[in-house]
Design goal:
mainly alpha; two-stranded parallel sheet; 6 helices
Length: 200
């Protein structure tokens, strides 16, 4: 009976941990801090007047733009659908666990061992399914963020050519930009044009 209680405790722990896999992925993967500055327009410069540099905050654009919100909504729905499947699996595991606890004292040793083995196998299947869903979410997230960046790059290049910028750098967390004059930040111009080219 003690072994059954130990296994029950282990099962409950695994269910709780695996159920958090996708949620943790979302929290870790989609957190996009807002920029302190939305950005201001960069004055056009004539050719040969020096190195004209612009700055763009992609993380801020992901949070503020229509396209960025679409990406986050798609990821949230994707996560919710898979979380619902995991919750069904969790309920089935809890039912099996409770059934084994109720019947444990009346089952013969071979029958009890068979039930315990079935529960262990279902737990392993659940862990594998949770891991697959987590990887599936991470892959979907990477694909959507790549598509978002491609659209941002198109707009950035268009504005950079109009303003005759020779270099555009990215600001924000995990970038190499340490300091810039705020007049170089044209994120707001990118946001305006990006929203114009985004449906909905």
């Amino acid at each position: 009976m003690q072994r059954l209680r130990d296994m029950s405790t282990s099962c409950s722990g695994i269910v709780r941990q695996a159920g958090l896999v996708i949620l943790l992925s979302v929290v870790a993967g989609c957190a996009t801090p807002a920029s302190e500055s939305a950005g201001v327009f960069v004055t056009e410069r004539p050719p040969g007047s020096g190195l004209a540099i612009g700055v763009v905050d992609t993380q801020w654009l992901l949070k503020e733009s229509k396209l960025g919100r679409q990406v986050n909504e798609t990821l949230n729905q994707f996560m919710k659908d898979r979380q619902a499947l995991l919750e069904l699996e969790q309920q089935e595991l809890r039912n099996l666990e409770n059934e084994l606890l109720r019947q444990g004292s009346v089952l013969s040793p071979p029958a009890k061992q068979q039930k315990e083995e079935q529960l262990r196998q279902r737990m392993l299947d659940y862990q594998q399914k949770a891991g697959n869903m987590s990887r599936e979410f991470q892959s979907k997230q990477a694909d959507l963020l790549d598509e978002f960046r491609e659209q941002v790059d198109i707009v950035v290049k268009r504005i950079a050519r109009q303003r005759r910028l020779r270099l555009v750098v990215e600001k924000g967390k995990n970038t190499s930009t340490r300091y810039y004059d705020e007049s170089m930040d044209f994120s707001s111009a990118v946001l305006e044009l990006l929203d114009q080219t985004t449906s909905r």
